[in-house]
Amino acid sequence: MRKGAGEPPIVLYENVRKRFGQFVALNGVSAQVNKGEVMCLIGPSGSGKSTLLRCTNGLEKIDGGRIVFEGESLPSDERAMRIIRRRMGMVFQNFELFPHKTALGNVAIGPTTVLGMNEAEANARAAILLDKVGLADKAASYPANLSGGQQQRVAIARALAMEPDVMLFDEPTSALDPETIGEVLNVMKALAEEGMTMVVVTHEMTFARRVANWVVVFERGAVVEQGPPTQIFEAPHSARTRDFLSHLGWGG
Amino acid sequence: MNLDWSIVWQSRGALLEGVLLTILLTILTMLIAIPGGILLALMRLSRSSILAGASTSFVELFRNLPLILVVYWAFYVMPVLLGIELSPFTTGLVALCLNVSAYNSETFRSGINSIRKGQMEAGVALGMSRAQAMRQIIFPQAWRRVLPVLASAWVSLFKDTSLVSVIAVGELAHTALQIRSQSFRVLEMLTAMAVIYWLLGYPQAKLVDWIYRKFGITE
To answer: Mind listing the pLDDT tens digit for each residue in B7-60?
Structure first.
C-alpha cells in the first residue's frame, strides 16, 4: 500500500493546467502527495515537472484545475498565499542563497522576517539546522566562499527553518559538480527518513529509485505514468517511461 | 604678456565662499536626489501603471533636457507658471535635483533589475511579502552595485553645479567669473578656477576609483 494512504493527502493536484503564452506547460495534471512520503517528479526537460512544483507554492499561477493544500484550495489572494508558503519549504536549482548574508544569516532570515522571531532565537535555530546539514563550522561563511554542495545544504537548512509541512525541491543537484551531488542527496535522504513530506523534481534516477515512495513520470505537460519506484523502474506500464529511462542509460 | 597673479590671492575670501557654496550645493542636491531617485525607481517598478507612467514621464523629460536649460527654466518660467518665487540658490538646487533625481532613478532601477529574479522568488518562497523581500534581499545587494555609479554621478554633479552660475548663484564658477569681469584678469582667474576645481575634483575621482575596486564586485 502507498505510504500515507490512510490519511488525507497534503497536496492534491486536480487537472492542473498552465500555459505560458502559446506554450502549454501543464495539460491537465492530477496527482497527490501523501503525508510523510517522498514523491519524485521525473521526465524530460521542459515536460512540466518544475512548473508543477512552482505552482504548488504559488510562484506561478495556474490557469485551470486546482491545487489543494491540506484540504483547502490554494487562495488566489497574495496575502493568504503568503501564509501558506510558510508551510512549504522550497529548494532551488541555483540555490538562490542571499549573497550578502552569512550561512547563518541565510537560515535565520526566514524566521526573523516572516515569523517575527527575535534574532537570538532565530540564530539558535539556524545553528541547529546548519549542524543538521553538516555545516556547523561554516555558519560565518558567505555563500561565495562555499562549494555548490555546501550552498545547497545551506539552502535546505534555510527552507527547514520555517518548519514546513512539505519540502519542494526543484532539481536540487542539477547545478552541482558531480563530486558534491552525493552530500546533498544524503541530506535529503536523511530528511526523508525523518518522515518529511517531500516533492522532488530530479534527474537523479538512483535517488528516485531508492528514496521515493511514489514516482510521477512527465512528458509534454502531462503525466505519462505514476506508481511506486519498483513499478516505474522495474516494470513500467508505459512504453514512453521505458523510452525515457533507457535514454538516461537506465537498464531497469 | 602682463600677468598679475596677486588677484587670486586677493580674492581668496570670495573664492573660498564660492567653494563652500559649490560643496553645499553638491551635498544638498545628492541628499535630495538619492531619496528622489529611489522613489522614482520604485514608482516605475510598481504595479500601478499611473505611478509608473508618471515616473517614466518625469525621468524621460529631465534626463533628455540640457541641464542649463532646466536651470534657466526654473529661474524664468517656474515663477510665472507655478507662481513660486525662490532665491537663485534654491532655484539652482531645484534644477539640479530635477536632473540628478532623473539620472539616479535610472541607476537605482537598473541596480534593482540586475538582481536575479530567483532572489526575489527565494524570499517570497520563505513567506516574505514582495516589500519585505525588496528590503531584506534586493536592496542590500542592489546598493553595492549602485554605489560606484552614484559616486561617479557625484563627481559629475560637483562640476555641473557650475551651470547654476548663469542665474547668479554665488558658487565657485560664478564668483571666479565675477572677479574676472571686474578685474579683467581673465587668464589668471580662469586658470585659478580650473586649478581649484581640479584640486577638489581629483581626490573625489580617486575616491570613486577606490569605491569601484571595493564594491564593484562580480559574483
So the answer is: 888 888 888 998 999 999 999 999 999 999 999 999 999 889 999 999 999 999
C-alpha cell at B182: 571686474
What residues of B are in contact with residue A110 (Cβ under 8 Å)? Answer: 126-128
Q: Is the ipTM of this complex over 0.90?
A: yes
B134 in contact with A at a CB cutoff of 8 Å?
A: no
| Contacts of residue B4, Cβ cutoff 8 Å, sequence gap at least 6 | B185, B188
- Is 1.10.3720.10 the CATH number for B15-215? yes
Lowest-pLDDT range of A106-110, B33-37, B167-171: B167-171
A63 or B12, greater pLDDT: A63
> What's the pLDDT at B213?
83
Chain A residue closest in CA terms to B122: A96
Kindly give, in sequence order, each residue whose CB lies less than 8 Å from that of residue A21, ignoring residues fewer than 6 positions away. none
**Cβ neighbours, 10 Å, residue A246:** 11
Contact A159 B121 (CB under 8 A): no
B13 interfacial to chain A (CB closer than 8 Å): no
CA distance B161 to B196: 14
Q: Are A167 and A202 in contact (CB under 8 A)?
A: no
CB distance A100–B136 less than 8 Å? no
